[in-house]
Amino acid sequence: MTAPVNPFKAQLASGQRSIGLWMSLCDPYLAEVVARAGFDWVLIDGEHAPNDLAAIVRQLQVLEPHVAPVVRLPMNEPWLIKQVLDAGVQSLLAPMVNTAEQARALVRAMRYPPDGIRGVGYHAGRASRFNAVPDYAVTANAQMCLVVQIESAEGFSNIEEILAVEGVDAAFVGPSDLAADMGYLHDPNGAEMQARVAEALGRIKAAGKPAGIIDGPDEAIERHFASGAQFVAVGADIVLFAQMLRDLSAKWKGRIA
Prior knowledge:
alpha/beta; globular; 12 helices; TIM Barrel; 44% helix; 257 residues
């Protein structure tokens, strides 16, 4: 019996376009609503949302039967990567990957020796179905999926070198941080940044790796797909929820005034 097949990695390998949703609400009940909504994949955000390890696990438990989960950690630390992998995470979005050296360190953190430095403690974790997968240790490496996030001028300059690292499966453009680092914090959607983002997506695709990004407006999402994106987060749960509530409140206040 081998490690479970990683559905997100299989999606990327298929070459087919896919859509996902960013998750920041940190609640398993709401996560199940998202899981049943029809997205191809979802991203549990541990960088800009208060998702700790326990919250991530609770959401994985309801997501996994319905949709492919990806997790973004707040930092690329081996000890933290080890914890979430043992908890059953197979796909990581690593923030702020700026060099090939950093990418190689991430690959090693996600793999057992001799290919990496991941500690062997799967026996008590969800990853091995609590030691019900006898061949987990020797088959797990093949199911790990690393998506590096390109969100700085340095990372932008090093796209090809980063993607040449064996074990890097895809790259995800972080448009907001990229704009901020390039001096466009107050104009992240201007023509200059649109051109930079399109270039990044095109270069990732040209390097033979799937390109991803997050956005909201329809025209922006369509532009990203046209520029070479293969997997796009088409919204964020907390943003959609907050806007819906504001719209509902404003509608009825306007009607009863």
